[in-house]
Design a protein that fits this description.
Layout lengths: L6 E3 L14 H17 L7 E2 L1 H17 L8 H8 L4 E10 L4 H9 L2 H8 L5 E8 L11 E10 L7 H15 L6 E2 L1 H17 L12 H7 L4 E10 L4 H10 L4 H5 L6 E8 L11 E10 L2
Parallel strand pairs: 1-3, 2-4, 6-8
Antiparallel strand pairs: 3-5, 4-5, 7-9, 8-9
């Protein structure tokens, strides 16, 4: 899966605080209630509680409790969100320390750029909130509570028209380099779709299948008679434009394949696995097959 992490460490407060007498699960729920109360007053849609994100937030809080705030690293959010098998396409995390209650925490949110975005965005996010205090965990010195909020939008399948979108951006790239557009070939569509499905289902990401079949063999198996074929693969992005941008930026021949003067046809395949639990875990699997047929 692909993440766009936006991380904020708001700072360490040295005040001694106590959350005793209030259940931490209740505190997490009440924090979301207060966030949504703020949003409702501004006619904004409510954020929704998401149990998997709450588990990820607890795991982040426990990690920081065990190792200290200085142990934070940029991959922490992505790792924990992936571990709870939440397929996200936009994710943000806020971490802060030493607040006595959710009202103090919310006041701090409103003073930070990311916090204001979370409170005031027109988008509705799924939210996981976790709070740890000295009664629930052994915390580092001078830390009396840890607050973690993870907000995300659930990943979804690419929008309808994804095949035409890929062809559009590939041909735009070719036109920028003075090359004629590629035309969609239904046979190449089937070959590319077969490979996208095969990679997703069999948990690999390669031009050669586990059976040893490559792009040429696949095209032949669908009765495509050709002078030449080439193939680009991509994973992780749900958007056709972003996928083509990956190929344009690649140094592994993908850019050159799209600008090949010898090809005139294209086929596009795409497979989305909403709960990709395999070794590869890309969720979005893309394949394009480009070719030049016999006359």
């Amino acid at each position: 899966m692909r993440y766009r992490p936006l991380i904020l460490l708001l700072g360490l407060w040295s005040a001694i605080v106590s959350l005793a007498g209030q259940g931490l699960a209740d505190l997490s729920r009440e924090t979301l209630v207060d966030v949504n109360r703020y949003r409702s007053a501004r006619i904004l849609p409510n954020h929704q509680a998401e149990p998997r994100l709450a588990r990820a937030a607890r795991n982040v809080a426990r990690y920081l409790a065990e190792r200290g705030p200085e142990s934070y690293h940029s991959g922490l959010m992505a790792r924990e969100v992936s571990a709870v098998r939440y397929p996200s396409r936009e994710t943000a995390m806020i971490v802060d320390f030493n607040y006595r209650n959710q009202r103090e925490f919310l006041k701090a949110l409103q003073k930070s750029e990311l916090g204001r975005t979370l409170m005031g965005t027109k988008k509705a996010y799924e939210i996981g909130i976790a709070v740890l205090d000295a009664n629930s965990a052994r915390l580092p010195r001078n830390i009396r509570s840890i607050w973690v909020v993870i907000a995300a939008q659930h990943d979804t399948m690419a929008d309808a028209g994804w095949r035409e979108g890929i062809v559009k951006y590939v041909n735009l790239f070719r036109r920028q380099h003075g090359l004629p557009p590629l035309t969609i070939n239904p046979v190449l569509n089937r070959a590319a779709q077969y490979h996208a499905d095969d990679m997703a289902v069999k948990d690999y990401f390669d031009h050669t299948s586990p059976l040893g079949t490559g792009p040429g063999e696949r095209a032949k198996s669908f009765n495509y008679r050709f002078y030449m074929v080439s193939e680009n693969l991509a994973g992780g992005a749900r958007d056709p434009r972003e996928t083509v941008e990956q190929w344009k930026a690649s140094k592994d021949g993908h850019r050159e394949a799209m600008l090949d003067k010898r090809v005139s046809e294209i086929g596009v395949g795409y497979r989305y696995l909403p709960d990709d639990r395999g070794r590869v875990r890309l969720s979005h699997y893309w394949a394009i097959t480009m070719g030049q047929p016999y006359p």
